[in-house]
Design a protein that fits this description.
Order of helices and strands: EHEHHHHHEEEEEEEEHE
Low-confidence stretches: none
CATH superfamily: Phenylalanyl-trna Synthetase, Chain B, domain 3
Structural class: alpha+beta
Shape: globular
Number of domains: 1
Number of helices: 7
Largest sheet: 5 strands, mixed
CATH class: Alpha Beta
Mean pLDDT: 96
Strand order of the largest sheet: 1-4-7-8-9
């Protein structure tokens, strides 16, 4: 189902990717308010007293900051965390799947993308972008992958990249019943930390879709 191209490991040694595949999920619904409150309260307790410079030093945020810095960019999830801490961003969504994914992203600060499994042409591979790859972003806008960025591809083309985000073709919609979540983990992030956060995401989705079946939960390196 998935592999990492050798060029990735040559350019970014010890890179990992976590994959979670679940079938029979529901698009709608919402995470329990108690779960949402627990995550938000946890974020304030863990990060609320820190400024941006201090946040950048924390694990695993620092690993992403170092990666993005190579491209002159900032880790966008850090900005979302700061907005959440200031009360300027909500975790509520029309989709329980997307809400669960975002809660898990903030909870673990691991960059995560979600895809409709039925729209993917397997197998998938994590590759290095040449800078010539063009795809339709989740917003519907055409984007070009950044040279040397990590990107996830199926047999049709790019489905996401770290700097440009997920694609439109395989986005999660109301018709989605089978999902694939991927966690990009640049050098410096341990496999057991990724697995722990995938387990949390799996549990959140199970609370929304009790009959959902997990087909794969694995860390690749």
């Amino acid at each position: 189902m998935f592999s990492i191209d050798n060029n990735i490991l040559a350019s970014y040694p010890s890179t990992k990717m976590g994959i979670l595949v679940m079938r029979g999920v529901s698009y709608s619904g919402s995470c329990k308010e108690s779960e949402i409150t627990a995550v938000i309260d946890g974020l304030h307790q863990k990060y609320g007293h820190l400024d941006r410079a201090a946040l950048k030093e924390l694990h695993p945020i620092g690993a992403y900051v170092a990666y993005y810095k190579k491209f002159g960019s900032s880790y966008h999830l850090l900005s979302q965390l700061e907005s959440m801490l200031k009360g300027k961003k909500s975790v509520h969504s029309e989709s329980g799947l997307l809400q669960a994914m975002f809660l898990s992203e903030l909870d673990g600060m691991l960059l995560t993308a979600g895809h409709d499994l039925s729209k993917l042409q397997l197998p998938l591979q994590l590759k290095i972008a040449t800078g010539a790859e063009v795809y339709q972003s989740i917003s519907g806008r055409e984007v070009t992958a950044v040279q040397n960025d990590m990107m996830l591809c199926d047999q049709t083309g790019t489905i996401s990249s770290i700097l440009r985000g997920p694609d439109y073709r395989s986005r999660i919609t109301e018709a989605t019943t089978d999902v694939l979540f991927s966690i990009y983990a640049p050098p410096g992030i341990e496999a057991d930390y990724i697995e722990k956060n995938l387990n949390k995401l799996e549990n959140r989705i199970r609370s929304l879709s009790p009959s959902a079946k997990t087909e794969l939960l694995q860390i690749f390196s």
